[in-house]
Amino acid sequence: MSGGKSYLVERWTPLSRLASLAVLVVLAIFAIGPFVFSSGLTDRLSALFVYVILAAMWNALAGYGGLVSVGQQVFFGLGAYFTIRLANAGIDPLVNLDRLINGETGTSLISLNAYGAATRRDGIYWAALAAMVVLLGALFVLLRTRLGAAVQAIRDNEEAAASVGVEVMSTKRIIFVLAALGAGAAGALWLASAVTFQPRNYFSVQWAAYMIFMVLVGGIGTFEGAIIGAVIFFLIETWFGAAGVWYLVGLGATALVFSLFLPRGIWGTIEARWSIRLLPVGYRLRLSGNGASLAIRDSDPVTTRETAA
Length: 309
Hints:
two-stranded antiparallel sheet, 8% strand, 13 helices, four-stranded antiparallel β-sheet, alpha+beta, 6 strands
């Protein structure tokens, strides 16, 4: 303490502890979902869990790692493809030329026909929920370690990170593999829900566009932002998905508006304005005294320092 001012390094706050408890309650409700939700809602929530995985993984890659990619749909498609191949006890390296896949005609995951519709639906729901919890939990833990700090240091300044001993390539490889694994799991889950596989649909660039949209709207480089963006995208799709091409035009226009006028996204703006973090992945240094408070954050891709009166 100096000059009437004190320094406090913090990670968890009363608000973040309350938010974590709320997350556990929500997950507990989701866990019993098939017993209380309608079949239609169960199906839709399975899709939401897949969207959350996709958004969180792309945010890990671009928002935290600084590795912007518009090709993550490749791993989404490969996840679905290898599910088909593994279900038929064989692996072929080329998708469209694989006789099992039948080129652009596609194929079905016929092994799921052994289960009743209700059993299949509930199983997919729980598998998607479990995958979401495991992947987001792994990402949350990773970002709170030295490796997570190294990832963000590379994002901010690769040369400076290397100068203090960060293994740049190996660190990038870890976050890239995690994001690819998550996208692949999402593709496998989507196939299990849709049953049919057509390469042009699963390898479509629209999946990358969806990932970017969710993260851009929710708040790139914030753990909460990816989840919020996925929920917003899910609601837009539910309400306006039947509008056809205008639905896609609307998504593009919304992304453009956010890029121009709200570049931090929804949660990024909230966090910057009120210095609120519900699920903290880093530390915060607070300087308090004479009615002032200074917060230094380590998880913002736009700026790492902000002052609040």
